[in-house]
Amino acid sequence: MNELKQVTGFEAGLSGDDQIRVALQRMIERGGEAQMPDIYEAVETRIRPKGFTLSRQGRASLRFFVNRVAVQASYVYPHDKENPGWRITPEGREFAGSPIATEEVAVNVDTGAEVRLLPNSAQGAAFERWVLILLRAAYPYYAWYDQGRHKATERGLDFVGTRLGDANDEARSIGVQVKLHQPNNAPTKEEWLKFLAGCFARRVESAMFVTTGRLTGAQRREAQEAKVIVLEGAAEISRLASLHNVEPFELSERGTDDESG
User: Same domain, yes or no, for 87 and 198?
Assistant: First the structure.
C-alpha cells in the first residue's frame, strides 16, 4: 500500500469554498452539528482516493475556513465554550445546497486584461457581513436591508440603507455594492454598469462602492461625475473602520487555533 502524501486542501484540489461545503455537509449529516475531528475525516474522505491526507498545515487551514471564514460569513454559529462543536446556521444550509459558483471575472488594472478568478463566495460573504457592521457604525440612523444574501435577485446592490427620521442634509437612501478583490483587480465593465443601473432602478439618493481592489480610470471618473462614494483599497477601508471603532477585517490564517480545534 502506497503511503499517503500529506498536503493542504488547496494542494489536493479543494478551494476554500469546497472545504467549507464539505464541513457544512458533515454538520448536516450529524444533525446540524459536528466536531472538528468529524470535519477532518470528511475532508480526508474526499482526498484519500487521490493518494492524499491532510498535513498539519492542511488541518490548520481547514480550521481557519470553519472557525473564521464560515463564522464571519454567518454559515456557522460562533464557538460556544459551553457547547463545543460547530453548528450550522440557516444561511449555512442554504450555502451548502446552493449551486457551486462559477469562476469570477475581474479586470487587472495594470494590464487592462480580464482575469478569471477561482470562486471565493464564502470569503466574499464574510467581507460583506463585516462591511455591514461598518455601515451600521458610520450611519447609525439608517435601517439596512441586506439583499446581497440573495445573489440571484441582488441586481447590482448588496445593501440598501434607509434614513429613519429627519434626514437633515443626509441622503434618505444609500445603495452599496461590495467587492472582495485583489489589490490590482477592478470590476468588469458589465459589473460596474450593473451597479450603476441597480442604483438608478432603486432610486437611491446616494451610491457607494466598496472594494479591497481598485477601480479603472474610467470607472473612477464616472464615479466622480455621478457622485458615487468610493471606498477603494484595504488600507483606506481599514482607516475608516478604525475611525468608527470597528475591528479590522482580518481573514489571515495566523492565530486561527482556538479551544475547539
Answer: no
